[in-house]
Amino acid sequence: MKIYYGLKKIKKLKDPVIALGTFDGVHLGHQQLIKAAVAEARQSGGTSVVLTFDHIPREILKKNSQGVLLTTTAAKIGLINKLGVQVIVVLKFNRRLAGIGPGKFVRDILVKKLGVKSLWVGENYRFGSGQIGSIETLRLFGKQWDYAVKVMPTVYRHGQKVSSSKIRELLRSGQIRTASILLGHKYILSGRIIKGQGLGAQLNFPTANLDIDKRNVLPLGVYAARATVGNRSWPAAVFVGYRTSVEAAPKEPVVEAHLLGFQGRIYGKTMNLDLVRKIRDVRVFRTHALLARQIARDAAAAAKMLKKRIKFL
């Protein structure tokens, strides 16, 4: 798969079949849309292309970036790569791009730069300045510039609409399993291990503190999880939230993983956390002794949960 950041270096593509969207989370609906574009390109002998963006609109237009992303750009590219796409184009979403009218976006980007022959979008797709562009707009321009418009209907699982906003809602309420079902893949928190305050070690429960991209949706709570560093994996009890003991709470949430049965130092390495099941909500503890007792219970609960064979749907 070829990856282009921006439009400058793109060479002429053969009969591009383009899947267009933000694709935050690359959930089941996104996957079906992208797979349909890939299948059409294979059948027609064209090039399968995903055109996406490095930010979601609310990050730029509403200046709201904390806790809104299901996938960073790197994670999104990794998930799209698994779907057989030949080319992915990542555009920088900023106020300039947001202010482009629908006609200019279609003419300058889809037609002139990419040479679109067939375009796939979701049934609620909106685009252009003020989100005034619709599927009907795309079809009208398609007649003018000779490209086809294909629409992927909304996907449902277990009676629930598959959408990025619904998945964010599920994650924020700690419903990890349901969110993973709608995503079609595990929701992974990933970050570099950094030095923390050392309170866990003082309580005989040393933790790995992760430097997580603050744009990620963080499901607050305590979880049984699988922690992976390189090729090594451990069961873990993971705290996601604001520290709530005798210390003053930080302004930003933290992610701390107590690895069951691990001893050693792994600072500076990248850790992936697969949150398997929620143990409890975040609570306030008046003393270190009370906190230590609860951490021991959390570790025992995590060990018990992770011993069970939990089938991923």
Oligomer: single chain
Structural class of the secondary structure composition?
A: alpha/beta
Number of strands: 14
Biggest sheet strand order reads 1-4-3-2-5-6
Sequence stretches where pLDDT stays below 50 over 5 or more residues = 309-313
Largest sheet: 6 strands, parallel
- In the residues, how many domains can be counted? 2
CATH superfamily membership of the largest domain, which one? HUPs
Distance between the termini: 27 Å
Average pLDDT = 89
- In DSSP terms (H or I, runs of 4 or more residues), the helix count works out at 10
Write the layout of secondary structure elements.
Layout: E1 2-5, E2 16-20, H1 28-44, E3 47-53, H2 57-61, H3 73-81, E4 87-91, H4 95-98, H5 102-113, E5 118-122, H6 135-145, E6 148-152, E7 156-157, E8 160-161, H7 164-172, H8 176-183, E9 188-194, H9 199-202, E10 208-212, E11 221-229, E12 232-241, E13 254-259, E14 270-280, H10 288-307
Parallel strand pairs: 1-4, 2-3, 2-5, 3-4, 5-6
Antiparallel strand pairs: 7-8, 9-10, 9-14, 10-13, 11-12, 11-14, 12-13
